[in-house]
Every structure is written in structure tokens, then in C-alpha cells.
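Colleagues,

For the teaching module next term, I've prepared a clean inverse folding example: a structure given as C-alpha cells, and then the sequence designed for it. I'd like students to try predicting residues themselves before seeing the answer, so please don't circulate the second half yet.
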């Protein structure tokens, strides 16, 4: 029999040894991660240093994700650190609208017959200024005048404050047909109602109705011919655009603000950014910035040899090079 005291002592020894190994593994893990990332952009033919990666495994407690097991790492899947950077050949910009309609709604505009009386009764009266976050700051005006985009892709639209502002800006510089694709799952985020209940319709059978509230604002602004919802997760929407050869001249990132969401959004958006185009986003200098957006932007710029220009609350990356350096990603 082992006494309780000894038991505690033994488990301390085990856990101390374990902690030391765990710490080591974390160090190796971050080292491997860095090497993998850096090598991925500099040496196309050499696979990243994958030996050290993916040691995160369940051990004693299968639910304990912090338990690290440094021995016998499984082979690292090659896509762990890599995003597809090669999308289909671009389709002509004047075919994008039709392509979206055909693929998403059997060729019919989502605004056709909108809103049905059954939907209308759940929506809030139109607000003259929909709730947004830095949605009309000067970065929009500056980038739209500089890029003069024919196609804008927005990740994270909410009620359309920034999208409709961009619509007005393009109209004001004689680009009334610029297409604005609004990628959003139109669910906002869990718990949003607790402080945004005045801005959001009352959910109906668990449907947030954010999509329809947004569409109402677009309709009111007479922009239904070119401000289109793309009501899916950013991940699946960007993958589809990549497959269809739909590129944006200007892409705004303002969806999930944790590191992993921002990192994936930025990488996938870069793939569908037209060479010469500009990628920018929100929350470089707001209280949300340390949730991960700033770290994701900084890392992305570093790995790809780009500059980050802070612009108010926003970040702006240097334009996508016309000739992409050959990488294996
Ligand atoms: C801060 S709001 C966007 C605000 C808007 N750009 C503006 O200026 O008014 C973020 C939006 O991102 C959407 N979102 C968050 N994560 C997402 C994801 N993974 N896929 C699609 N949409 C997402 C939410 O539904 C929410 O509407
Ligand atoms: C998870 O593992 C760590 C490291 O071994 C340990 O310190 C922690 O107490 C474990 N947590 C749980 C919930 O088992
Ligand atoms: C567009 O131009 C009109 C008329 O000059 C002006 O009132 C409006 O503020 C401009 N919109 C934006 C977003 O700059
Ligand atoms: C939209 O079009 C209608 C009908 O042409 C017009 O009465 C209204 O003022 C327009 N709204 C805006 C915001 O331009």
C-alpha cells in the first residue's frame, strides 16, 4: 500500500518530470512551428521540419489537451501549416455576379420577392445608421480611391454598415457597378444578444434573422443588384471562391477575431486576392487586437515578406505582388 503522502509525492515527481518534458515539448513544438513556417516560404522543395511537430496527444487524461507526449510523434499532415495559395484561373469580373447566383441560388437573386410578409413581420424597422464597428473610418475611402475595385469581398458584414459605406464610396467615384460580396454566416456570435438586442431582430425558431435584416438595409439603399450576401462560414465561402476562380480587388477581413480564425481568413483571402489588390482588416488597434488579429496579421506579413500599415483601427497589407514568388504552398 502506498500512503496518501507518498502517493502525493510520487504524483508530484511524476508531474514534475512530466512538466519538464512537457515544457521541452512545447519549446520544440514552437521551434518546429517557426522553422516550418519560415522554410515554407523560402525553400519550396524542402518539406518543413515536421519531426518536431504535433506532439499534442492525449495521455493519462484523453480530454486533457495540454498533455504533451514527446515520443513517437505521428507523421505530420503536410497541410498542417499550409494553405492553398493557388486558386482556379480567374473568371472575368463581369461573370462573378452570375456565377454566385447560379451556384448559390439556382440563378435567382436572393432579393427577388424579398421580404415576404412572413419574413418582414420579424424584422426591425430600418435604422438610419446600422450598428457597426469603425465601419466608416477613413481607411475605406482611402483604399477605395486608391484601388478603384471592381470586386470587393468582405469577410464579416453583420448589418452591412461597412458594406453599404463602401457601396456609397464606389458610387461617389463613378463605380456604381462594383460588386460587393458579403461573406458572413449571419449569426453574429454566441451571446451577442445580451448587449446588442436593440440592433438585432428577435430570433425566430433559433434563426438570428441577421441575414434578412442586412438584406433589408441593402434593399433600402437600392444596392440589391451588387451588394450580395454570401451566407456561409468564411472558410467554406473562401474555398468556394477559390475553386470558382472568383477574385477580389479589395478584401476586408472583419469576421472571427481569435488568432486561428483571423489566421485562416487572412491566408485564404490572400489566395483569392487579385495580384495588385489590397487586403485589409479591422482590429489592429482596438481592445480586441490582442485576441489574436494583430498577431495573425504580423505573422502573415513576416512569413510572406509583406509590410503592414496601421490605419486607424485597421491594418492594411502591402498590395499583392503582381508576380507571386514560386512557393510550394
Ligand atoms: C464585427 S462583425 C462585422 C462588422 C462589419 N464589418 C461592420 O463594420 O459593420 C463580425 C461578423 O463576422 C461574422 N463571423 C464571425 N465569424 C465568422 C465565420 N467563421 N464565418 C462567417 N462569418 C463569421 C459574424 O456573424 C459577424 O456578423
Ligand atoms: C492536464 O495536464 C497537465 C500537465 O500534465 C496537468 O498539470 C493538469 O492538471 C491536467 N489537467 C487535467 C484537467 O487533467
Ligand atoms: C458621397 O457623395 C455625397 C454627395 O457629394 C456625399 O453627401 C456623401 O457623404 C458621399 N458619401 C461618402 C460615403 O463619402
Ligand atoms: C431608391 O430608389 C427609390 C426609387 O427609385 C428612391 O425613391 C429612393 O430615394 C432611393 N433610395 C436611395 C437611398 O437612393
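(Answer key — instructors only)
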Amino acid at each position: 500500500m502506498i500512503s496518501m503522502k507518498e502517493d502525493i509525492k510520487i504524483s508530484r515527481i511524476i508531474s514534475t518530470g512530466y512538466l519538464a518534458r512537457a515544457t521541452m515539448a512545447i519549446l520544440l513544438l514552437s521551434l518546429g512551428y517557426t522553422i516550418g513556417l519560415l522554410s515554407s516560404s523560402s525553400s519550396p522543395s524542402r518539406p518543413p521540419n515536421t519531426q518536431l511537430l504535433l506532439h499534442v496527444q492525449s495521455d493519462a487524461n484523453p480530454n486533457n489537451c495540454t498533455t504533451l507526449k514527446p515520443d513517437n510523434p505521428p507523421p505530420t499532415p503536410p497541410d498542417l501549416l499550409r494553405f492553398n495559395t493557388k486558386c482556379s484561373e480567374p473568371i472575368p469580373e463581369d461573370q462573378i455576379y452570375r456565377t454566385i447566383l447560379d451556384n448559390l441560388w439556382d440563378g435567382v437573386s436572393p432579393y427577388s420577392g424579398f421580404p415576404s410578409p412572413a419574413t418582414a413581420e420579424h424584422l426591425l424597422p430600418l435604422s438610419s445608421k446600422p450598428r457597426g464597428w469603425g465601419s466608416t473610418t477613413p481607411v475605406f475611402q482611402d483604399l477605395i480611391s486608391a484601388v478603384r475595385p471592381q470586386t470587393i469581398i468582405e469577410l464579416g458584414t453583420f448589418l452591412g454598415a461597412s458594406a453599404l459605406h463602401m457601396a456609397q464610396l464606389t458610387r461617389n467615384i463613378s463605380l456604381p457597378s462594383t460588386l460587393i460580396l458579403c461573406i458572413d454566416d449571419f449569426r453574429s456570435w454566441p451571446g451577442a444578444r445580451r448587449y446588442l438586442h436593440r440592433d438585432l431582430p428577435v430570433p425566430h425558431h433559433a434563426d438570428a434573422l441577421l441575414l434578412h435584416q442586412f438584406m433589408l438595409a441593402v434593399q433600402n439603399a437600392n444596392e440589391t443588384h451588387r451588394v450580395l450576401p454570401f451566407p456561409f462560414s468564411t472558410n467554406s465561402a473562401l474555398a468556394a471562391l477559390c475553386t470558382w476562380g472568383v477574385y477580389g480587388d479589395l478584401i476586408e477581413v472583419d469576421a472571427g477575431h481569435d488568432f486561428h480564425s483571423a489566421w485562416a481568413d487572412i491566408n485564404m483571402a490572400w489566395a483569392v486576392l487579385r495580384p495588385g489588390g489590397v487586403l485589409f482588416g479591422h482590429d489592429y488597434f482596438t481592445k480586441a487586437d490582442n485576441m489574436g488579429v494583430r498577431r495573425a496579421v504580423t505573422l502573415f506579413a513576416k512569413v510572406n515578406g509583406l509590410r503592414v500599415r496601421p490605419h486607424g483601427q485597421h491594418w492594411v497589407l502591402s498590395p499583392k505582388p503582381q508576380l507571386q514568388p514560386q512557393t510550394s504552398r
